[in-house]
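[Structure tokenization] protein backbone as discrete codes

[Encoding] learned vocabulary of local backbone shapes

[Begin record] amino acids and matching fold tokens:

___
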Amino acid sequence: MTDIQKTILQKASGETRLDPDQQRIYMGTFRERVVLILTFDQVQSQTFQDKLPILCRDLSVRFQPLTLKLSPSLSDRLQVAIIKTAQSLGLTTSIIDEKVGHSPYALVFHTDHAVDQEDISLEAVFPNLVKQEEKKEEQKTSFWKKLFG
């Protein structure tokens, strides 16, 4: 009888997840399993959308198995494009909608075991991609500079 009472008390007390706040931030997974996070601004940039297959392929080679979780706050068009690209490369994808609290990230790439990387931002994991994007911005000259040179 005490087992039933113990079970009832556990269910009545709410969540039984370990560190639920951390799991809400990283869409249901732990920080030590995350290999790359992307913000909404990064995901909506055209550079990211062009480089997504390269990112997915590179990450899936380095980390097996690899899972991609998407925020429901992304546009439907963008969600479908990302899911199609990721699934064509063999990644498991899902859209995560937390009932309590929302993740500040648009995409979370993670594995099923601890990798415990120091920095999981796009700049740290793929520095070449960010440098190429900055170089493109530096090459643009203003209209007035072209005119008065």
About this structure: The CA atoms of residues 76 and 90 lie 21 Å apart.
